[in-house]
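Quick one, tokens below. Sequence please?
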């Protein structure tokens, strides 16, 4: 009659929701900014506003902690601290990129 063997198809993606690696390593173009705002003239303002958001979340968490809401307050305080940490890391990367490009 016929051959009942199925044709092999393409391999399924083991993690279909995964994003590409944001840090391509040594093959990356050094003139490409880590984020478009890193090349903007107002990059310090962008980072200051970003830090203000993290600070506001942290302060709100501390306020809730003082008011007795340990779970929500603690989560907000930790989230604010982590966000501020990311802002500092981003500022360092953006400043290094701008130095590499010879910008102030």
């Amino acid at each position: 009659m016929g051959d009942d063997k199925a044709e092999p198809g393409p391999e399924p993606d083991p993690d279909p929701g995964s994003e590409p690696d944001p840090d391509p390593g040594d093959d990356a173009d050094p003139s490409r900014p880590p984020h478009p705002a890193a090349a903007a003239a107002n990059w310090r303002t962008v980072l200051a506003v970003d830090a203000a958001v993290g600070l506001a979340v942290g302060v709100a968490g501390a306020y809730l902690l003082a008011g007795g809401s340990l779970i929500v307050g603690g989560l907000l305080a930790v989230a604010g601290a982590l966000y501020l940490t990311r802002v500092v890391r981003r500022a360092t990367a953006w400043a290094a990129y701008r130095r590499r490009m010879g910008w102030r």
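Residues 70-101 form the longest helix (32 residues). Helices lie at 43-67, 70-101.
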